[in-house]
Design a protein that fits this description.
By secondary structure, this protein is of the alpha/beta class. 46% of the residues lie in helices and 16% in strands.
């Protein structure tokens, strides 16, 4: 935990899908920046490791189990956060799932599940949190997109959802800017997480080989880490980033179109 937070102003941050991977790293970084963090994952027990790590480092965290695609669950979660931590003004929409397949093999259930968590989840969480942001006249919404938004074989559902996140981000930036709320997106490239490990399994390649091949295609010569994404989220969440809104930052080790 940093002894000197980036900002001396304590805010309440909400990070979805924060039980592990990128979400856990973002939650830890925002806590290190001096914010109280609500850690949301599908089940409350899934948040325990992240919450414990933050508290052990001297931070303030609350674990909440909620399905972000369920409107009632989202409203209840945000109400609990406001009651126990204070008005949430930083939101990181990170929750996501994979249901990869080629188009002719993809089921409607797999399409709907991915759209539900990524797009509907971001919509419901943003709608619930923006009410507090508008009241406070300050806010940050940070959405997780992906380089897959540019197209990726076997991920028609995921790519469409992540491209949708970018349009959603730019629209909310227009709507909420007058209230002191900025909205930006981070589009990670190849990041070493359980989700990329699952992709390696899907294509039948050992994860180490999968990573090595990916690194060869990345200009900086390495795969990304969850902490790389957390650093970008930390910047977007700062008061100093108040003139940056509606942007999509590709954190991918090199340029992307």
């Amino acid at each position: 935990m940093s002894e000197t937070p980036v900002s001396s102003t304590r805010r309440v941050a909400v990070v979805t899908g924060a039980g592990r991977g990128i979400g856990a790293a973002v939650a830890a970084r925002l806590a290190a920046d001096g914010h109280a963090v609500a850690v949301i994952d599908l089940r409350e027990e899934d948040t325990a490791r992240t919450v414990e790590a933050i508290r052990h480092a001297g931070g303030e965290a609350l674990g909440i189990g909620a399905d972000v695609s369920d409107a009632a669950a989202v409203e209840q979660a945000v109400a609990r956060i406001a009651a126990e931590l204070g008005p949430p003004t930083i939101l990181v929409n990170n929750a996501g799932i994979l249901r990869d397949n080629l188009l002719f093999k993809m089921s409607e259930t797999d399409w709907d599940a991915v759209m539900g968590v990524h797009l509907r989840g971001a919509f419901l969480m943003s709608r619930a949190v923006q009410a507090h942001q508008v009241t406070e006249e300050w806010g940050r919404i940070i959405n997780l997109s992906s380089t897959s938004a540019l197209g990726n074989r076997g991920q028609a559902n995921y790519a469409a959802a992540k491209a949708g996140i970018q349009g959603f981000t730019k629209t909310l930036a227009i709507e909420l800017g007058r209230y002191g709320v900025t909205v930006n997106a981070i589009a990670p490239g190849f990041i070493e997480t359980d989700m990329t490990r699952a992709t390696a399994e899907r294509v039948g390649v050992p994860f180490e080989d999968f990573m090595a091949h990916a690194a060869k295609e990345i200009p900086v010569g390495r795969a990304g880490t969850p902490e790389d994404i957390a650093a970008a989220a930390s910047f977007f969440a700062r008061a100093e980033a108040s003139f940056v809104s509606g942007q999509v930052l590709y954190v991918a080790g090199g340029p992307k179109d």
